[in-house]
Amino acid sequence: MQVISTKLNDCFVIEPRVFQDSHEYFFESFNLTELRDETVLNVNFVQDNEAFLQRVVLRGLHFQKGEYAQVKLVRIIQGSVLDVVVDLRKKSSTYGKWFSIILSGENKKQLFVRRGSAHGYSVLEDNTIFAYKCDNFYNKESEGGIIYNNSFLNINWMLDKNEIELLEKDMKLPNFKYLVIPTKK
After folding, report:
1. In this structure, is residue 183 part of a structural domain?
2. Tell me, what CATH number does 154's domain have?
3. In the annotation, is 132 catalytic?
4. Is 178 among the residues known to form the active site?
5. Farthest-apart Cα atoms in the chain, separation
6. In a domain, 14, yes or no
7. CA distance 111 to 104
8. Which residue among 14, 39, 48, 122 is least crowded, i.e. fewest CB within 10 A of its CB?
9. Is pLDDT above 70 for 41?
10. Residue 11 — very low, low, confident or very high, per pLDDT cuts 50/70/90?
11. Which of 119, 132, 138, 148 is the catalytic position?
């Protein structure tokens, strides 16, 4: 696995070694020993999640606060998304900055999202399968978020704004400047 730093502190792109021939492909999607050797990753993942998504859906930007804050390792099994991370750690030199990358079933890249970050994505293809590992269990009372069309962040979600489909809860998220920052764990 190749671990690539991003413009955000403690946020990494992970590119697995893919072995492919005319009949199949194989790669390790997660190897804790190798990742510990390559990064400051010292995470015990406790939950795997998977979602089936249609194009033009936009989710986020979400995070878990306090003791329920989560590290995530995100990947796409099929299809593609624009994956976005925003650094919410006030003491970080990259506070308020964001990073985006296209993750796809084809490129097999993964994104390591550090605790204290908001995370969201826009679905770029129908029939996309999104999978991620978390190091902490979900807690509804600890949910937080930032509205996707925040003028301070000015994120290009790679979707026509007239096509975007949001969940009701994603339409009600606060602007970045009114955000109560999650506690760093």
Report:
1. no
2. 2.60.120.10
3. yes
4. no
5. 53
6. yes
7. 11
8. 48
9. no
10. confident
11. 132
Could you tell me the residue range of the domain that residue 67 belongs to? Answer: 2-178
CA distance 24 to 27: 10
Residue range 132-144: mean pLDDT, rounded? 93
Query: Alpha-carbon dihedral of residues 54, 55, 60, 63, nearest 10 degrees?
Result: 50
Distance (Å, whole) CA 130 – CA 51:
5
CA distance 8 to 118: 12
As a whole number, the mean pLDDT across the chain is 87
Report which of 120, 96, 115, 128 is spatially closest to residue 169, judged by C-alpha positions: 120
What are the tokens at 25?
């492909």
The pLDDT value given to residue 44: 85
Residue 185 has pLDDT above 50, yes or no: no
CA 82-120-19 angle, to 5 degrees, is 50
Residue 185 in any domain: the answer is no
Q: Is residue 77 predicted with pLDDT exceeding 90?
A: yes
Residue 110, both tokens: 């993964």
Residue 137 lies in a domain: yes
Q: Quickly list H helices, 109-174.
A: 168-171
The domain tally of the chain equals 1
Catalytic residue among 62, 68, 119, 121: 62
Q: Say what the pLDDT of residue 79 is.
A: 96
**Total count of residues recorded for the chain:** 185
